[in-house]
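Z., the sequence and structure:
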Amino acid sequence: MHGFFKATICVTTRLVPGRNNDTWTEHRTLYNKLMPELPEVETIANGVNERVRGDRIVQAWFSSHREPFKTTPALQAKGLEGRRILAVHRAGKHIVCELGQAEDAPAGSGRPTRGAGKPATSPDTSPEAQWIVHLGMTGRLLVTTPDSAVAAHTHARLSLASGRELRFVDPRRFGRLEFRDLGRGAGFSASGAEPLTIEPEAFALLFRGRRLAIKAALLNQNLLAGVGNIYADESLFRAGIRPRRMAGRLTRTELERLRLALCEVLEHAIRLGGSSVSDYVDANGMRGFFQLEHCVYLRTGLPCLRCQTPIRRIVLAGRGTHYCPRCQT
């Protein structure tokens, strides 16, 4: 099992001996398209929050590559330095660092001094800025120490008053970093509904009259925020619904079964630290374990864990889709 998942990370341009071309194509598609989903982002956000909440940013460094930055490095550094991290949380597939007012800024300087950390602000303090991180496909947000080796493709290093560093590493540079001054604009919010808290009626309304496959609807971030390929496949399996079924034709009973299955799968994946089938690691650099409990995802041709029917793979909405032809109707 461990060897299989290791193989999905190390992608080259040649076929793996002993595997057919269909299986190889699936592995290469995984590397090119897979990105952290809700459980992975939640795990990272919780880990970062646990370790840096109440800490203060004393210095910010950014790389010269332009791709990861929705806000220019200079504006991010100016906006971040001196601010205390009030909380870190997930919004959809984004990590949002809520920031307090800049501290120790001498009059007229526009820049904070490099002083020692102050006591943590009150939990009731309202944020005045946000630092927003999207991990893309290969992004990592790590809490470490200044003397630890700096990984290649490190694009941000935030030095904290506690002596730790918050680093953003992204080899493929599809991740994004953004700074928002809440005194000048609105805070970040995900465009879709939160799948872990959505009520039954609101969930059913999302799919009413929609003439697209339920798998495609689950992946639509304007409908549900944070659900991706892995957890759509796993939730549809638990709900016993085929991914090709038209979303608007599912009954209320089926939709409620799907909502409950989706919450179940996401919450269990969070408890196990997410799925590490590619580059994903948590804030401490540790891999997740939910991939060991996948029922259908990446199990093409293997027997269903319930009925022993071989798992099938199709392409739906441009994504590899896995299901059991007997358990899902």
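Residues 83 and 102 are 4 Å apart (CA to CA). The helical segments are 2-9, 21-33, 38-52, 73-80, 200-207, 214-219, 229-239, 252-271.

Let me know what you think.
H.
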